[in-house]
Amino acid sequence: MNKKYALLLLAILSAFTMTAQSGKQKKADRLYDDFAYVKAIEVYKDLVEKDYNTTYNQQRIADSYYKLRDPDNAVQYYRHVVEQPDISPEVYYRYAQMLRGMREYDESRVWLKKYQEEGKNPQQVEELLEPDGIITYEGLESFRVRPAAINSQFSDFGTFENNGTIYFVSARGDANTKTKIYDWTGEPFLDVYTTSTGGSSVSPVKGDINTVRHEGPLTISSDGKTMYFTRNNYLDNRNGKKDKEGVNHLKIYKATKDGDEWEDIEEMPFTNDRYSVGHPSLSKDGKTLYFASDAPGGQGGSDIYKVSIEDGTYSEPENLGPLVNTPGNEVFPFISEEGNLYFSSDGHKGYGLLDVFVITKDSPKKVQNLGQPVNSSLDDFAFTQTSGDNTKGYISSNREGGQGNDDIYELNILAPLVLKGKVTDSINGKPIENATVRLMDENDNQIAFLETDEEGNYETEVARDKVYPIEAKHIKYNTKTDELNTSDSDDKTEIVYDIELAPVRDVEYLAEINKIYFDFDKSNIRPDAAKELDKLVDLMTNEYPELVIEIGSHTDKRGSIEYNRKLAERRAQSTYDYLVKHGINPERIVKYQGYGEEKPDVDCIRCNEQEHQLNRRSVFKVVKME
């Protein structure tokens, strides 16, 4: 072939190839702009394999996985993208979030810091950059999590229980509507389903709730007659207005129950065609409705709001403010019967992506992470409690090990353990009144300070699955420290932890006696000394009948050393004689010795009379207590 024609043919083929790739690029971008991320990824991958617009298409793949909440795949592509020049700071933020989803917290902070330095909204990451730990729930209940039997291979989430009926949201696609595929996820549109408590049979909710668009999640009034539910802007079998970017936003609708069916669908007046309003939760008294919205003027992506309901009218929405809402996303509020507000957030510090947080009535100024196992490194959301005794509940999560994209998990909410016990004397077994028992946390911070009653008893509540350092003490006893382990206690309602304290080996402390003093140059037992010795007799007779002691007696420094030694011996003898005379077995006094002036209590050279008196004394030493 003529060389000139060969070159022309190659140029034509190259142009044809470029034209084909350009067409694929337009198709991929169109799918992405239409939120068809699953389909877009496949086209973008084909372009990357052909080395066409590689950096741009890798970012689009990473962003698609970010939208699909798939950290494993998103990180794989972001890792290449962030090393390229002239990358938008938003990519650093998304990469950091996906790293959190994989529990790579240190690496995540590196890219959050880079985003903070270059981004337009640096305050968005302030809390996530803090190296201090997560503020975990201070309540003493314990949560047990297990997959619900109603899960399918599709997305299932947003569970709500009312009067024995469980409502939930699912993309399983067998509701009584024309099944359409939602391009964002590649699954059917969401519908609301029901099942009975403890049952396995699932059916679409009856009435006019489900349509060809997304429905759910929902909330129902305490009397079971009114439902508020989320749906795309769709009413009377018609799509509502889309925003300028072609997005059909979420709205909250109200339905009324007639027999077994939900009818009379009504759009709430605080919804809007230009932004989403969804995830309703109704207070027990039916007077306050909480919801999530990305309305303009909020703290960030999506915020929690509330409206008051009175005589069928609704107040203007009120943003719950910066305590709850962050520059990130706050979604899926749930207001419990006792008034605790639960919600999910990726802006408050957590274990990964969305975590469940709570603001309790007892701590209204503190946002607390519910901790593990409620939360994981991926998305955890849609916390609800069942009505009644609040021992059951649900969360939704895309954590590892599930059946579908999102799954429903049942919560068994265990009440705190009652910790009780008796503090006793290790020698005589008698209860110790006013002993103190302290419980500490893993950081050695005191979390409980208790005093025993006259029977030596103490009682408090503790959480399960913890190891508590514990300390018991009393002025007359040696302090005892130990660890209390509350693991493997699901079948228990209380733990009995008795404590024995060993008495200090100091009879003056134990008997609460003062020193046994003598007059100058005398060895007789004075009346004040007799009262103190009577206390010692009582201690040895009634408290510690096995107590064995020795006596040591002393003098002041006046007189010769030899004279003072003999005077001290007479004082030891008179002390010994008094105890024996009042019933103490001589065998329990193994030694009584005079030391003269050798061991003064006050070591003075020119002693005054008060100092001399302090040195004229008998003292006692414990030899054996058992």
TrEMBL record:
Pfam families: CarboxypepD_reg (PF13620), OmpA (PF00691), PD40 (PF07676). InterPro entries: 6-blade_b-propeller_TolB-like, Bact_OuterMem_StrucFunc, CarboxyPept-like_regulatory, OMP_bac, OmpA-like, OmpA-like_sf, TPR-like_helical_dom_sf, WD40. Residues 1-20 form the signal peptide. Residues 505-626 form the OmpA-like domain. The keyword Protein biosynthesis does not apply. SUPFAM superfamilies: Carboxypeptidase regulatory domain-like (SSF49464), DPP6 N-terminal domain-like (SSF82171), OmpA-like (SSF103088), TPR-like (SSF48452). Keywords: Cell outer membrane, Membrane, Signal. Transmembrane segments: none annotated. It is found in: Cell outer membrane. The keyword Membrane applies. Its main location: membrane. This is OmpA family protein.
